[in-house]
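Anyone have tokens for Alpha-glucan water dikinase 2? Sequence:
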Amino acid sequence: MRAVDENAEGAPLGNSEHWEHFEELFPMAQMEIQLRLSREREAKEAAEKLQIQTAAEDAMANLLASSIGAMALQKAVAEDTLAAARAETAALQARLEASDVAELETALSKAEAEVQEAQRGWQTARNALGQSEYVRARLTERLKRCKQTIVTLNDRLFEGGRERRAARLRVDMAEGKLEVALSDATHARDVAASHRAQRSQAQMETRWALEEAGEARLQAEEARKAAAAATADAAQARAQAAQAERVASEATAKADGLAKDLDRTETEVAAARRELDHRIQSSFSIPAKKAISLAVKVGEAWENLSVTKTDSGVDITVEKSDNTYRVSIELTDASLHDGLLHWGINDWDVPPEAVQPPGTREAGDQAVQTPISGNKVTLSFPADGCPSKVVFVLKKGETWTNNGGSGYSAFLKPPGVDELHSKIMAAEGTYEHWSLFSRFNMALSILEAADAAGAEGMALVATWLRLSTMRQLDWYRKANYQGKDIAHVQKQLAQRMAEKGIECHFLEQWHQKLHQNTTPEDIHICEAYIAYLHTNSMDDFWRVLWDNGQVSREALSSMTHPITAQPLHLPQLIPSMKHYLWILKTTHSGADMDVALEMARGHLDGELAWIIGDILANRTAWWVPGKIVQARHRLKQYWQREGASRDVLLLDIALDSYFRLCVERTDLGSLSGDDLISLVILVLDNASVAAESSDLEAALSLWRRVAEQERWSGDWARLAMAASDFSALCLQEYMDRIAGLVQPFANDFKAACNIEPKYILNFGEEVVRGQPVFMLSVLLRALGPKLRGAASLGPWQVVSAAGADGEVLLLPNLDGVQGQTMPGATIILTERLTGNEDIPEGVTAVLTSSATDVLSHIAIRARAQKVLLATCFDHGHFEGLKELAGSHAAAVVTPVGDVSLAAIDRTSVGPEAVPGSASKAPKISLAKPAMRKRGSSWVLQEPEFKASVVGGKSLNLAALRQKLDSLQDVSLPASLALPFGTFEAVLASPENAAVAKTVSLAVKELADTAPGSGVPKALACLRELIPSALAAPAGFKDELAQKLVAEGLVAEDAFTEQLWSRAWQAICTVWASKWTDRAWLSRRAQAIPDADLSMAVLLQPIVPADYAFVLHSADPLTGQRGSVHGEVVLGMGEALDAALLALPSKRLGLYPDPSQALLIARSDSNGEDLEAYAGAGLYESVPLAPLLPRTLDYAAEPLVWDAAFRADLLHRLTSLAAGVEAAFGGVPQDIEGVLSGDRLYVVQARPQVVQN
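Reply: yep, here.
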């Protein structure tokens, strides 16, 4: 019974929240359910009453049986006693008859006494019977008659039994009724379940009806307001018309007078004619004195800031002079002439009276209205009080012209990204009434400002609209709109964004599979899902999936991105999924191109329309991708035009999407190396149509030239490999820049709009993957092994370069360690990576045998976390690395791009690298320098360089200059040095007392930091404090200027305040680099006290370089003498890592600005260039003016293409390395220098730290 009751109570019929709309839409079902529920409740109540009554009857029967048993016993005893007494009486009577009287009397007395005693016993029994009758009030009547016969009592017992049987019968009947009620309730639930899908649809229809009703009410309200406003406007228009006539009359008279005045001098007339024409046409009343003032100002030079032409017949020109901003509004549509300019500034604020043209009247608290005479009006603003923009609409009679609802905007001083960001976030996060229509209107209104703010501004708009497309932002929030309105504003927005060069593709996500790419199987998956939504049966899902696409459950779960989860039954998604199915079918059939071509055909020339039509007619042919690229190049001129049609842009997007689909469908494993190279060039060429990237254009030029050469020799393969590496770097920079632009804004939308984190976490990465040029990374990954094999470049592909050490951990994959923190530094060896994993904290390197995409999730994470990530293509070599599992090892990237992994002694690495292994005893002692004496020179010239006074860099340069005779065609730049102790002396000067106190506290905090506790904040404090707050003592500036001029480093008249400020900033930054994180951690690892390190500064000129180089006169890995290793890059170098064993592939070169001071301040501490401690690179070198990055053009680079030039340069560099080593007594040297013109310059030489 209890189980049945709980089942009945557990039915979902009483959930008012879920049945609210059901009661409204299905009253008959509601009544039936309520009736059945009522019957069920009555049956339950009857059952409960019967149970209670039965229990009571059972209790009474038990009590009655107990009482009757006791009374029967007492009655039997009393009857036995009475019978015995009667027997004795009879015996006494008999004896009386036989005996004399005395004996009879005695016996009689005794008998009477015994009779009395028996009567008392019988009375006692009666009293006990009365007491038992009192126990139960309801049995009192029955118990009073207990003295009657046993037959009477048995009758009553029989009656009780009959009542119990009747009660049992009633219970059985109630249970039967309850079963019937429960059956009815179950039937009611089944009926309700059968209506659930209908209920969902009905709820949707109800909401639609309510929305339409709300929209109707809003429209009615707006109509009433419009009627009232129209009445008010009519009255105002009449008044304005009268005023306009008066103003026009006055303007004409004043204009005539002004013309007469201006006729007096031809010079004034010529100077003021343009401004006067503008003023007269705008019917402005210009007093004579003001006209003369304007005539003088007309001579100013005007810079044209922007020209905007709209489809509605309104052209807007914004100009700027030194002191004035000017907005000219010209009406090319004659129907707009002689109307009113309804305008405001910024976001509809009333402009100051001083800038309002004559005749302007207030129009509410947000705008003013200025009459337009003819077809042109001009607004002027002083530069110091200029608003960010002018906003306006036009009115003529009762007709308003408002640019399709978005209004017109003229941007003078573009607002910053922060202002646009705040405006969007306020609307999305706080507005009570908001909709998709509102969003598009706001996007239209700020689009010009976003464009003026640059890439960051347009990235904000792109992120905003992408999140809207993903429905992560509200489309309806107490606001409605009509379909025709949203269609119009959407078209306007798309067209305006086309003018800005923005393609905002969006990806329809189909679990993780669609996150990567879409294939024809997605059509069948969608069909199967729709079948499931109709029937709520997974059998139908699998049946349709197999019947339509021959896709099995196993095939679905074994895809690269498997689908294994069972879907939820959400029938309300059926319309949306049918639409999505249409998208998939049109995408995979290219049908969207057919529609796009028909819509855009009227805007194309006949030949281009024929070419695209030919592509559509042969869309599966092998040559289609190439034809698409040709067509897109020709199509570009159409969508780049001012006022270009949205349909042309959509056609280009459709062609671009189909191009990617064609590349994705290609079986790359079946292609030859030549075919892959052709595809690489084609993908880069396709990207060049719309991607404004000098990097990708340089990669395209390089590949085209590489493809022209005779292929597949070892030299050519190394050339192609360099091109591949260069292309990967260019692609990485392009994609990282896009992700970096949109991801911060996505994070802001998440915070402002409460978007689920899963939609935001990898938002930037998904935008990157949506770019068609993303396929370049897939092609380069497929091409890499073929080039490596031909070039003999080794088994490794380094995706993220970094040094690493830690315990080697062997894993099948990273799935089991996601989200974990390693107990110590860890190097992971794994067979398989999908590219979607995160790198656990504590991991210093991930080495794998599976190819890894340079733009995969894990690759992006590795570069961000400075983790070594590399792929080994040699299976045997990778199997050998597994033998290191469980040992402590170090991994380094070799100069030729391989990875070296070898076991090391755990105690040989510093305490910061290996937790728990901190050494308390110093391992290295730094030579204590001589401290600067009071009154000595602040700046030393080269003859004054001495040991313990300056560092090794300065000493080596001075020594090398004395031996230049043995080095032909080699020069050394002049140099100055700030000796050891200069920083301490400057800090101790009176003007730096407060800084010195702060530095002392920070240094004490560093000394008190416990080993292994991380990077203390005091380091950043010192690095910020010293360059910003340290002041130069008296005499320092003058001495520096005098010696810079004396050494020819600066012209006498070139030492300006700006140069001094930059020089002092650079010097202080070098001093502060003593406390970089790397330097401090490195010293801690070697137990070197901070106080032992002293920092001198070397000042040198920057030699404008064609090439920069670093030479190691001994093998840096083995220490082998006679094996020169070098690195050469173009310009000053971004990072010198292009070894002479391979061709250069760095993306950027760094070049000095010849208009700036060409000086650099280099660190020269006593903790660098030590035999047991490689401290080079830990401290800063700071140019006085930043070096300018420039994308390198290897397609025309002699170092790449001119073998004779390259051989000559290599010969000269090896000779230089040998000569410098010999000059220092055969000690291997680490040499830095540049080639400028035809001359080599050595800017630094120091002993090479050699691995033995």
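Residues 513-588 form one domain.
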